[in-house]
Write a structure and sequence with these properties.
This protein is α+β, with helices and mostly antiparallel strands. It is built from nine helices and eight strands. It is globular.
Length: 281
C-alpha cells in the first residue's frame, strides 16, 4: 500500500509539473520595446530553421535576415520570405519532449507562420530544433534554444502590436533623449560607435548603401544618443526605397535635435517617406 501511495504521489507531482509548464507557456509575455524586440529577433534567428510546403526543412541564410519597421525578411533554400507584422494573429510557441519548438498562430491548427507576399505565394514555417545540428536537442544548448523560441514569439507579437498602431518613439528613448538634450556638453561618441561611423562612411564612398545602413544601425544600437547616425541612416534607407526604415530613423533625429537648422526639411522629408511607404504597400 505504501508503494501504491508513493506512486500516486509521484504521479500527482508529475501532473502538477506538466500543468504548471503548460500554464507558463500560455502566460502572456510583457510587451518588449521596439529595440528590445529587434535584438531578440536577431538573436533568436541564429537558432531557427525554416520550412515550406514544397521543399521541406532548410536552414535560414543568417546573412539575409533583415528587419524593417513593418516586416521580417530572410532567405531559406533559395526562396525569399517577407513576413508583414500586421498580417498574423497572436503567436504561441509549443515545445515537445525532444525540445523541438514550433510557432503557431493563435486559434490555428497549422504550424505555418505566414504566407509570404512575393509572386510565388509560398508558405513558411519557422522552427527551433531542426537543422544546424538540432541545437535544441543538445543538452548544453537546449535551454538557450527554448528561450530563444520564447523570446522570438514575444518579440514578433510586440512588433505586431507596434505595426498596428501609429509609429511612436518608445518611452525609454524619449526619457533618454530628454536627459541628453539637457546636457550642457554632449559626450563624445564611444570608440566602438566611432568605428561604425567610419565603416558606414567608407561604405557610402564605395557605393555600398546596404553595408552603410548596417553599420549605421550597429552604431545607433550601441549609442542611441547619436543624432547624425539616425539622420544618415534615414537618408540611406530612403535612397534604398526602405521608406518604413527611413521614417523610423528620422524620428529619433528630430527628437534629439528638434531645433537643428535642417529640422524643418527633415520633417518635410519624413512626411514624404510616410506617403511613399503607404503607396509601396
Amino acid at each position: 500500500m505504501r508503494l501504491v501511495g508513493k506512486a500516486i504521489t509521484v504521479l500527482l507531482v508529475m501532473i502538477l509539473m506538466i500543468a504548471s509548464m503548460a500554464m507558463a507557456q500560455q502566460q502572456p509575455v510583457p510587451e518588449m520595446s521596439y529595440r528590445q524586440a529587434q535584438r531578440a529577433i536577431k538573436t533568436a534567428m541564429s537558432y531557427a530553421t525554416a520550412s515550406d510546403a514544397r521543399s521541406g526543412m532548410g536552414p535560414l541564410d543568417q546573412n539575409s535576415v533583415r528587419l524593417t519597421q513593418g516586416t521580417l525578411e530572410f532567405d531559406a533554400k533559395g526562396v525569399h520570405f517577407t513576413i508583414p507584422f500586421k498580417e498574423f494573429r497572436t503567436l504561441t510557441v509549443k515545445c515537445d519532449e525532444d525540445y523541438f519548438c514550433r510557432l503557431q498562430e493563435e486559434g490555428g491548427k497549422k504550424h505555418w507562420l505566414l504566407t509570404d507576399y512575393n509572386a510565388r505565394k509560398r508558405q513558411v514555417g519557422i522552427f527551433f530544433g531542426y537543422g544546424r545540428g538540432k541545437i535544441c536537442s543538445q543538452a548544453q544548448k537546449r535551454d538557450e534554444c527554448m528561450n530563444a523560441a520564447a523570446q522570438f514569439v514575444a518579440a514578433l507579437n510586440s512588433l505586431h502590436n507596434y505595426a498596428l498602431r501609429p509609429t511612436t518613439l518608445d518611452e525609454d528613448f524619449q526619457k533618454q533623449a530628454t536627459a541628453w538634450r539637457a546636457l550642457a556638453e554632449k559626450p563624445a561618441l564611444p570608440d566602438a560607435v566611432r568605428v561604425r561611423r567610419m565603416m558606414a562612411e567608407n561604405a557610402v564612398k564605395n557605393k555600398k548603401p546596404e553595408d552603410a545602413l548596417k553599420y549605421y544601425a550597429q552604431g545607433i544600437e550601441g549609442y542611441p544618443m547619436w543624432p547624425q547616425g539616425w539622420f544618415n541612416a534615414a537618408l540611406v534607407a530612403g535612397e534604398l526605397g526602405h521608406y518604413d526604415d527611413a521614417v523610423y530613423n528620422m524620428q529619433p533625429y528630430l527628437e534629439l535635435v528638434p531645433d537643428a537648422k535642417d529640422a524643418q526639411s527633415a520633417r518635410d522629408q519624413l512626411e514624404i517617406w510616410k506617403v511613399e511607404a503607404q503607396e509601396k504597400k
